[in-house]
Write a structure and sequence with these properties.
The complex is a heterodimer of chains A (96) and B (494). By secondary structure, chain A is mainly α. Chain A is 35% helix and 4% strand. The longest helix of chain A has 18 residues. By secondary structure, chain B is α/β, with parallel strands linked by helices. Chain B is built from 16 helices and 11 strands. In chain B, strands 1-3-2-4-6-5-10-11-9-7-8 form an 11-stranded mixed β-sheet, with helices on both faces. Chain B is globular and about 70 Å long. Classes of the chains: A mainly alpha (96), B alpha/beta (494). At the A-B interface, helix 1 and helix 2 of A face helix 10, helix 11, helix 12, helix 13 and helix 14 of B.
């Protein structure tokens, strides 16, 4: 199984990872090898498995807001801050 | 009296005896002396590299405080004065917690993991944060972004991973016991490689709150110790329900220590043939065979069993885990905490931060996870892996209708040479072939030392049904009483 360089670039874009040329080569090879190994699942028969069971053991907690004792400490962890707020690059671009 | 040879029980007795035999500060200082000996990078003939952060000042301050409390006759915690190593994936408030990654090199968590709070209120002395594979991803310790940990039995070999530092530190005598985490074998496999005891509890037994997430549906905190009894003491303290972890389960925690001495002769032990497959080294096979013969002498019944879905476990694991990794590691975006390679454009800030500060294995798993979850592949990979997971759970449940415990080799090999597999991710993944099925089924398991092959420790894995930690500890303890393997000390040869 082979993963092409174009596929690696596409995945890296989806995963927000900047990769060097060497890394692209390496992951194209590594991913191919691991996926070939994983391919052994192809012969596994799902016949005896009840897919409705997938979520049977999920647990949910109450959707309740609780106060955090020191919110400013959380803000202070951010790489860039202004006036007790976390500063980030613009999410929406200007409509020219 | 050799203070660094005491068990947890002996330590408690000595500290709390009417006529005190030693002080907490003497114990802490004795351990710190050994720790410093093996954490000096310049002394390559002794360097283990088990710690990322050493907490000497706070450890000594805590020891002093405990001594005062004991002198005054104040109430102290159940693990008073225990010098402990804590894997660097457990958040420790105000203390740098790196998870073995450069992206968290300067990260001081604003809160502590529940497990850390529990051991702290039991009055342990935390000596430091132990080295590990980045975000607990690895089987050799070589994925640490800081340095590789060396195996105390042979410094040119890996200690196993990902709780590499925790296992090596306990084996080297740098701490009495340590906390680790186990997603696919990360407590048991390094424990086996380093000749110490490693316990992976049932999923939900130990709180994951404050444990930096790798694959949340499989991650579980565990313990590494020199003996089964020590492991039982530590597990007793960290086990139990925590409302802050939605997958923590509110089951009563049994008296693990009290159960250790109960008889084992009515137990039925299964030997699952699929765990003795190709790739197993002859020396490992021999040691495990002898261990099974020893266990049989304890009066238990031995039965051969089969786990037909086992050959698919590792493949399923390398779909489920990367899928969760790709989601869990999305939080490292250079915005809220951690390192950041800031640019004016949002996408570039994300991509550069992650490209620059995440290591090779983290990136590999993120890519793999992104691939198996992407449109068109989800059914072929993720859904198939979830089906395998159900089949494995089902197979184990079937077997546990006939037997109480399963016995297998923890790893098919002994510790391999540092650097020998770094370019072969698949070969490294295969090191977890016998431990991964346990996580996939959410079961508890323990690895105990059971001999040596070519001078390197071999581990024996006991697997129990969910919540049956006490049964597993009981047999492991009985086995330990009739063998000497856990008392052997490493040579630090090169």
């Amino acid at each position: 199984m082979k993963i092409t360089k174009a596929e690696v670039e596409h995945l890296a874009k989806l995963a927000r990872l900047q990769l060097s040329a060497d890394e692209k080569d390496r992951y194209s090879r590594d991913l191919g090898e691991v996926l070939s190994y994983i391919d052994k699942l192809r012969v596994f028969s799902e016949g005896r498995v009840d897919k409705n069971n997938f979520l049977s053991d999920s647990a949910l907690r109450l959707d309740k807001v609780k106060d955090w004792p020191n919110p400013l400490e959380l803000v202070s962890l951010a790489p860039k801050q202004r006036d007790n707020l976390i500063e980030v690059p613009a999410v929406f671009e200007k409509d020219e | 009296m050799e203070l660094t040879n005491l068990s947890i029980k002996q330590l408690q007795e000595g500290l709390l005896a009417e006529k005190r035999q030693f002080s907490a500060i003497e114990v802490a200082e004795s351990y710190l002396e050994i720790l410093h000996r093996h954490e000096n990078k310049k002394k390559t003939n002794e360097f283990v590299g088990a710690f990322i952060t050493i907490l000497e000042d706070s450890a000594l301050a805590k020891a002093k405080e405990l001594d005062k409390k004991i002198e005054r006759g104040d109430k102290v915690g159940s693990l008073v004065g225990l010098p402990l190593g804590v894997k660097d994936v457990f958040a420790t408030q105000g203390i740098i917690t790196t998870a073995g990654s450069k992206i968290l090199e300067n990260y001081k968590p604003p809160y502590s993991a529940t497990v850390v709070e529990r051991v702290e209120s039991a009055d342990v002395i935390i000596l430091g944060k132990t080295n590990c594979d980045e975000f607990a991803m690895g089987t050799s310790g070589e994925n640490s972004a800081y340095y590789s940990t060396h195996n105390p039995w042979d410094l040119s070999r890996v200690p196993g991973g990902s709780s590499s530092g925790s296992a090596a530190a306990v084996a080297a005598g740098e701490c009495l016991a340590a906390l680790g985490t186990d997603t696919g074998g990360s407590v048991r496999q390094p424990a086996a490689f380093c000749g110490v005891v490693g316990v992976k509890p049932t999923y939900g037994r130990v709180s994951r709150y404050g444990l930096i997430a790798m694959a949340s549906s499989l991650d579980q905190g565990g313990v590494i110790a020199r003996s089964v009894e020590d492991a039982a003491y530590l597990l007793q303290t960290i086990a139990g329900y925590d409302a802050k972890d939605a997958t923590s389960v509110d089951n009563k925690v049994p008296d693990y220590i009290g159960e250790l001495n109960k008889p084992v002769k009515d137990l039925v032990i299964g030997i699952p043939r699929e765990f003795f497959g190709e790739g197993m080294e002859p020396g490992v096979a021999e040691a495990v065979k002898q261990a099974i013969a020893e266990i049989e002498k304890l009066g238990v019944k031995i039965k051969e069993v089969s786990l037909p879905s086992m050959p698919y476990a590792l493949a399923a694991y390398y779909i489920l885990t990367p899928a969760e990794v790709s989601a869990n590691l999305a939080r490292y975006d250079g915005m809220r905490y951690g390192e950041s390679a800031r640019k004016d454009i949002l996408y570039e800030t994300y991509a550069r931060t992650r490209g620059q500060f995440l290591g090779a294995e983290a990136k590999r798993r993120i890519m793999l996870g992104t691939y198996v979850l992407s449109a068109g592949y989800y059914e072929a990979y993720y859904q198939k892996a979830k089906s395998v997971q159900l089949a494995i759970k089902h197979d184990f449940a079937k077997i546990f209708e006939q037997v109480d415990l399963l016995v297998t080799p923890t790893s098919p090999t002994v510790a391999f040479t540092l650097g020998s597999k770094v370019d072969d991710p698949l070969a490294l993944y295969l090191a977890d072939i016998n431990t991964v099925p346990v996580n996939i089924a959410g079961l508890p398991a323990i690895s105990v030392p059971c001999g040596f092959a070519a001078g390197l420790p071999v581990g024996l894995q006991l697997i129990a049904k969910p919540w049956a930690e006490a049964t597993m500890l009981r047999l492991a303890y009985a086995y330990e009483q009739v063998t000497e393997w856990h008392n052997k000390k490493p040579s630090f040869k090169k």
